[in-house]
Amino acid sequence: LTPATANAAWDVASLTRFLDGDHREVRQRVRTLLADPRFACHRDDGQGRRRQVLERCTVLASEGLGRLHLPRSCGGAGDPAAYLAVVETLGLGDLSLLVVFGVQFGLFAGSILALGTDAHHRRYLPAAGRFDLAGCFAMTETDHGSNIRDLETVARYDPATESFVLHTPHPGAGKDYIGNALEAHMAVVFARLEVAGEDRGVHPFVVPLRAAGGGILPGRHVEDCGGKAGLNGVGNARLAFDQVRLPRESLLDRFGRVSTGGTYTTPIESPARRFLTMLGTLVPGRVSVAAAALSATKRALTIAVRYGAGRRQFGPPGAPETPILDYLVHQRRLLPPLATTYALHFAVRHAGREVLAAFAEGRTGADRRRVDALAAGVKAVATWHAVTTVQTCRECCGGQGYLAVNELGPLRSDVDVFTTFEGDNTVLLQLAAKSLLADVRGELEKSTRLDVLRHLARPVAVRATTATAARHRLRDRRFQLEALRWRERHLLAELGGRLKRAVQAGEEADEAFLARQDHAVEAALAHIDRVVLEAFAAAVDSCPDFSFRPVLALLCDLYALGRIEVAAAWFLEHRYLGPHAARALRPQINALCADVRPHALALVAAFDIPDAVLAAPIGRP
Ligand SMILES: Cc1cc2nc3c(=O)[nH]c(=O)nc-3n(C[C@H](O)[C@H](O)[C@H](O)COP(=O)(O)OP(=O)(O)OC[C@H]3O[C@@H](n4cnc5c(N)ncnc54)[C@H](O)[C@@H]3O)c2cc1C
């Protein structure tokens, strides 16, 4: 036991094993690698830093970690879950390295795997998986970020030469922010496919960018995006194409094919569905981003909790000063985020399993829609949680937290953009809400307003007449789950009802949705709150070690009451909570913080972040 865990009345290593779950061996390998002196921290943000990150990515590739998800026939291990475990663990360390790794193996190789066919796999994946072929993923354009459907880069098929002509029609159609593009030799480029004068929508192409010696090929323009707020170990660039000729085989043709003579065929006739299916290949990436953001959060919390336990300020006269983590408000700042981090840990794992199963089983329709909504929602919530928690941790460490050597400032700058890339959070939540609405729509079509109201009748509203009864009710897991389920159901049914009435009154469906965007985002967040609590509660129930189960149960209570407290006004407004219960929330959360406090050091020790990876001197146990 390290000093930080010496006082734990339960087995910290056993909790680490429980948290690690599947693929523990590969997680340990990555922890050990990140702690290797070759990966020691270095914060020069110039070109040397980019080179350093690339060298480290080469080491990870040489260990076979970048190809675990690729098929065995292409040199991989056919194990996407192991790959996800690698990405999650890399999030404990340098986030620039994580992003370079994720772009190369997740986005570049992953999109060739998901969108290409056999010939593409055999031709590109073995080298991409070894990092011998450095690639990038070029979807976003300057004028079109979230709105991918309206991208303007064009790939026109020329039957005379059996080739495509790839072109950027104007500067706003240039690809923007493209990670790894300053070094990549190849890009997967998303462009509008035009065949015989007909626009077939956005399709992916493999496009060589550089010659073997590194020189940029004719017709390609690559321009450094310059310094960024963070992640300066990653090279991001703008790309433009000037009538670049590509052989017919460059089209990644799983979902759309062009014959030599120029006939377009597709297994998915509906252009809208085809587009969504292609974009669906981004879904596993969203879970990776959520998992990595959560790892960064664990690192920040480990630093701040340890600092808080050791740092003393003020105290009774004549006695030693008090550790700041013993102050109630310090606990309120750090321990609810710690509980949420544990809760999200299990939710992200659940989302990862669901997404990988959905892909492996080729799920479609409503089953697939639900999984996409889950990945989008979990990505949004986990990355926002990371940003706010890292900032809180920075402040909780005072001036020390501001020193670069203590990592929290750089970490905050690096994790910031996780809320934007792989889908802007606010846009993702709207996508999630639309998916969830599709489920309630079926129910609502047949029902009257009265049916809906009956359906939403409060099941166990806290009508407790005494404060003691209210307190007991709040700590009852069934009540907590029912409260979050009811809020989700209510927000979705109400939204569905409002949309239905608006359309009946003559509004266009799209306009009706836009006029109720705030409601949609709230409903999606409520959905994720419920999913996260269910995942955490299930983990507590299934936990094999009874010694730490009560501590996890405390954290689960803290998470649940925290979410109910955030929505307390809504619960009161809808008369789900009575005044006794609403008033009891705050003291209950305070009491839970006091109960969790003695376990705080052990709970962060269970994240098992090696000292060398934690790096911050104030975060050492
Ligand atoms: C560091 C970095 C690395 C990146 N790497 C890559 C990469 O490798 N490859 C790649 O293809 N792309 C990459 N991107 C691009 C990234 O995916 C986009 O930035 C992202 O999709 C958002 O697009 P945007 O920047 O155009 O923002 P916009 O879509 O313009 O959004 C701006 C704001 O408008 C809001 N907004 C947009 N639409 C709506 C709406 N309908 N309703 C309400 N609000 C709305 C958003 O919430 C957001 O707050 C990267 C970006 C960055 C910053």
Structure description:
- This protein has 621 residues and is α+β, with helices and mostly antiparallel strands.
- The protein is 56% helix and 10% strand.
- It has 23 helices and 13 strands.
- The chain has helices at 12-20, 24-35, 47-62, 80-90, 95-115, 118-130, 271-279, 283-310, 328-361, 365-396, 398-402, 408-416, 425-446, 449-455, 467-474, 477-504, 509-514, 517-542, 549-566, 568-573, 579-596, 600-605, 611-614; strands spanning 135-138, 154-158, 163-167, 175-179, 186-195, 198-208, 220-224, 236-241, 244-247, 257-258, 264-265, 312-313, 322-323.
- Strands 1, 2, 3, 5, 6 and 9 form a six-stranded mixed β-sheet that branches.
- Strand 10 and strand 11 form a beta hairpin.
- The longest helix has 34 residues, at 328-361.
- The chain starts with 11 loop residues before the first helix and ends in a 7-residue tail after the last helix.
- Mean pLDDT is 94; it is low at 1-6.
- Flavin-adenine dinucleotide is lined by residues 103, 137-140, 145-146, 177-179, 228, 231, 236, 417, 420-421, 424, 426-427.
